Every structure is written in C-alpha cells, then in structure tokens.
Amino acid sequence: MFKDKLFLVMLVLGLLTIVAAAGVVTMRRGDGQEQNPYVDMPGQENLLAEEQKEESQASVAGESNARPAREKTDEKVAKQEANPDTVIQEQSHEKGKNNGSQEAKAVGTGMDAAKALVLDFSDTSRAGWPVMGNVVLDYSMDSTIYFPTLDQYKCNPGLVIQGEVSSPVYAPANARVAEVGMNEEIGSYLVLDLGNDYTAVCGQLKEVSAVEGEYLEKGQLLGYVAEPTKYYTVEGSNVYFQMNYQGAAIDPLDYLE
Predict the structure, then answer these.
(1) Could you say which DSSP state residue 99 is in?
(2) Alpha-carbon Rg of the chain, whole angstroms?
(3) Are 172 and 192 within 8 A, CB to CB?
(4) Between 98 and 123, where is the model more confident?
(5) What is the separation of C-alpha 38 from the centre of its chain, rounded to a whole number of angstroms?
(6) Within 10 A of 224 (CB to CB), how many other CB atoms are there?
(7) Strand 198-206 versus strand 175-183 pairing type
(8) Which candidate in 1, 36, 79, 149 could, as Cys together with 234 as Cys, close a disulfide (CB 3.0–4.6 Å)?
(9) Residue 27 confidence (pLDDT)
(10) Closest by Cα among 150, 155, 151, 123 to 138
(11) Model-wide pTM > 0.85
(12) Structural domain span for residue 201
C-alpha cells in the first residue's frame, strides 16, 4: 500500500511539472514578436518602391499632356485679341472649305444672275414660244369656245399649245420666277414676272428645274411637257400658256414671235 501511494504521488508531481513547463514556454512566446504569415521575398521592398515611382510618373505625365492644350487655347485667345479680323477670316475660310459644294452651287444663280437681266417687258416686246406646236385651244375671253374633254363651252384666258410628252419647255422672256405650284387643271406650273406688270403662266409641266425667286434668261429651260391632266385628255399633251397685264389676261398671240 505504501508503495502504491508513493507511485501515485510521483505521477501527480510529474504531471504538474510537465504542465508548469508548458506554461513557461507559452509565456515566452507571448513576450516575443509574432511570426509573419507571408513569405518574405528578397527585393520586395525595392519592387514596391519602383511601383510607387511609376505611379507618380504617370500622374505627372497626365498633367503634362493637359498643359499643351491649354497653352494652345491661350495662344488662340491671345491671337484673337491681338488681331480679331485675321481670326474671323481664318474661321470663314475653314467654314468655306467645309461648305464648298453648297457655295459653288449658289454661284451664278438668284440675285447674281439678276445683274445681267433686265425685266422690261412692254407692249412692243416679243416673247418666245415656250414649246413649238399647234394651238389646240385659242385665247378667248370675249366669247366662249368648246372644250372637247369637258364637253362644254367656256372662256379661255390662255393658249393650249400642243406638245409631245418630255419635250423641253423654255422661258418666253427674261423673267423672275414668282411662283412654283400645282393645281388640278393645269398640273405643275410656273408664274413668271416679266417686268412692268407683265406676267406669264406656263402649265402642264414636269421635272421643273426653276425655283421660286430665280432669274431666268429668255430661252432657258423651265422643264418638260407632262402627261395631260384630266381636263385635257382629249386635247392630248400640251403646254398651257397664259399672259397677264396688271392682273388681267391678255391674248398671248399678240406678243409671241
């Protein structure tokens, strides 16, 4: 019994000694520095320093790229303040290059052409035929005449001149295009200002090339003979030609060559 008790006492003392030794080791580790969980690589500090240096250089480069644009703007402003006329001329020149095709199209038309034209039609002037052909329906404002398609008699303020479809139609005199329009009876038409309160109307046209406000020379193309409207199907394709003086219809045959 004595031997057994001695053995147990020695076993307990041994266990206590082991526990005490483990506690001392743990306390020493706590007093020391913790181990870095990442693997240390040689030259890592230099690598981080180079990356920071590159980022700094990139920021500086971005600033340097922005400076020339600002300097260029400052030069433009200074140039405009020093000589505004020159800058305006340069801007106009650039705009002209961009719109060259539109400006080229406008040259020689409209008011420029008017300088070479004299709209001075009078009772002694003679107009050209808009299309060469027989007169199918004559001017008649004092009495009525028969219209075959309408099958009725009525006054006619103009001439109905026979013409083949797609035949060219010409300006009877120097004129300004006062109106471009279309109606049910005479189709597409032009109203021409001949000057001195004389006007002319050309109808039954297609592919009209003239525009409102344009100045035309005598004999210049107006368009082409169109298919007849429903008012002239029996008479056939034609050009409707009417002349007015001070708003009243006059006989075109008194003025045609």
Answers:
(1) T
(2) 51
(3) yes
(4) 123
(5) 66
(6) 19
(7) unpaired
(8) 149
(9) 59
(10) 155
(11) no
(12) 135-254
Tell the residue number behind the tokens 């199918």, with chain if given. 136
Does residue 148 fall inside a structural domain?
Answer: yes
Name the residue among 226, 250, 230, 248 with its Cα closest to residue 239: 226
202 within domain boundaries: yes
Count, residues in the chain: 257
Task: Specify the pLDDT at position 52.
Answer: 52
pLDDT score at 31: 53
Contact between residue 187 and residue 230 where contact means Cβ atoms under 8 Å apart: no
Classify residue 255 as exposed, middle or buried by CB count within 10 Å of its CB (0-12, 13-18, 19+). Answer: buried
* Spatial distance between the Cα atoms of 42 and 107, rounded to a whole number of angstroms: 79
pLDDT at res. 166: 96
CATH number for 249? 2.70.70.10
Per the DSSP assignment, residues forming a β-bridge with 239 are 161
In the block, residue with structure tokens 């260029």 = 72
Give the model confidence (pLDDT) of 74-93 as tens digits: 555 455 555 554 444 445 44
Q: Tokens 């003392």 identify what position?
A: 13
From CA 160, how far away is CA 241, in angstroms rounded?
A: 6
Number of domains making up the chain: 1
Q: Is the dihedral of CA 162, 251, 130, 229 positive or negative?
A: negative
Strand duo 238-245 + 175-183: pairing = unpaired
Q: Does the residue 247 lie in any domain?
A: yes
Tens-digit pLDDT profile for residues 167-209: 999 999 999 999 999 999 999 999 999 999 999 999 999 999 8
